[in-house]
Amino acid sequence: MKLKFKIKGKEWKAEILEEGEDKVKIKVGEKEFIFGEEEKKGISLIQTSIPKRDFSKKEIKAPIAGVVSEIFIKEGDFVKREQKIFFLSTMKMENEIISDFDGKVKEILVKKNQEVKEGEILIILD
Q: How many helices (H) and strands (E) does the chain have?
């Protein structure tokens, strides 16, 4: 899963490379981080949850809680993998939500200015 977000005007790109039961490997810029091996590195991390993805269903879910600030697609549109589809605002940051799949937009389940929870389904693709 690829994510884009802004902090104080600077855009960052992150990618979840690997998810396991006891670790998550994330790449931010050119650096890779493994969360779950804190005791080996002496690092203390705040526990976060990353929603499990079922790639057999073409559902795009909110990776974090926030407010839908922009919608760039409409039902019936064809989207490509890694295409920008939403802006999700949270804690004064605009997070660009991109599609994990190619497909036709079957249903948009949210509206502009709607609050969403982490893991909530935003759109369904055919």
A: 1, 12
